[in-house]
Amino acid sequence: MRSIIVLGVAGIWLALAGWALGDKPNQLSEQEMKDGWQLLFNGESLKGWEIQGTPDSWTVEEGTLHCTGKGGG
Question: Which phi and psi angles does 49 have, rounded to 5°?
């Protein structure tokens, strides 16, 4: 039980630290961009994705990729 509480507090602390430092999800650092890294998902659209099966089987909602369960592939 004690370890669960410690892990929970540590998780909250890390989340707050990231927020306070201005960390934003789905972003590359300047060095990563210079090194040629590319994001798999930009949090805004399906740009660069090749949808197999039904085109509306994937959507982006509030920065998250969702499978609607429609169609195959």
Answer: -90, 145
